[in-house]
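Quick question, first post here. What does this chain look like in 3D?
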Amino acid sequence: MTSQFSRINRLAKASLISGLTTATAAGLLAAPAPASASTTAKTTTVLSASSNPVSQGANVTLEAHVIPTPSGGTVNFYVNGKPINQCQDVSIDASNGSAMCTTEFGEAGRLGLQAFYKGVNGFRSSSSNVYEMAVHFPAPGYWLVTSNGVVHASGAAQAMGNFATSAATGPVVGITATPSGKGYWVVTAHGYVKAFGDATYYGDLPGSGLNVRDVVAIAPTADGEGYYLVGADGGFFTFGNAKFHGSIPGLHIHVHNIVGMVATPTGHGYMLVGADGGVFNFGDSRFYGSLPGIHKHVRDIRGILPTKRDAGYILVGADGGAFVFGTGVGFLGSLPGEHIVVNDIVGIALTPSDRGYYMAGANGKVYGFGDAAVGAQPLVTSDLPVAAIAST
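> Answer (accepted):
Ran it through. Tokens below.
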């Protein structure tokens, strides 16, 4: 009897084992698989800025913070869905999970910023929420420089130094502001250049061993990391990251009446204007018209000024007549239109909003149109004549 019961017990155990084996094979009782070494960790990316709002053209530092702190990877920063060129593939600091990039914004308004972390070493990619950045127009102001190098400032502009001229340097013929409006360059007829404030000196003609006597203007590149000098014959000289895109002598055209120039925001072109209002384009600069093209015959144009959006330009005459080409800025008035009779206007400068412009007279008088506020007059009463004007 005992033997029979033992046999039955052995059969029952075998049946139970067989059942468990079948069930396991069917996956009904399978135990959870151990965690894989390749399982990735979810991350969160948070974007912030060193200041908000910021002024147009002012430096701002963007910081992306990745949580939890990853062992590596990079971050790309975007504005309105487009990559910020100098803020791509920024390495993560593995000690704190942050990636930082300093940039500036050339247009005023409300911008949507984002940061995208590219995961690595078991950490997943993640994108920040949209961070809204307010970019304001810089406060308006302007500089006047006299032919003997004395700089006077009004409004938000600050005088940061003068250029001591001599027979060797020649008289001052131009001044131009940095993109931030916190510095300026001054140039003389002999091609000497001096930098003030946050402007950087990249060289000049005497420093390059060139003997020139007819420089008429200086113009910065869009990022302020270089500048152009131009002569009365339309010859160009480049410094810093300024690129050469051709010249009037290179076209075998002989002139001696060039009075001004401007560079395009892309850095791939520029344009010149002559005293007769003729406009010469090089590289990717866009031609919107000229005075000879509309059958206006003048000989006293004093300068050309582009709009910040590269959608046109303004010419100004010695009598304060303003000629607008393109759609970047509307006609806001002229001295003949105000029945003001002068013949000594030396230049024109736009306000940061493109909704106003200043005209400067050699006698120190400044005239404002649109949202250009000129304050007390005259700003300059000594060291005359005024040679040029620049704005923030």
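The first strand starts at residue 44 and ends at 49.
The helical segments are 2-25.
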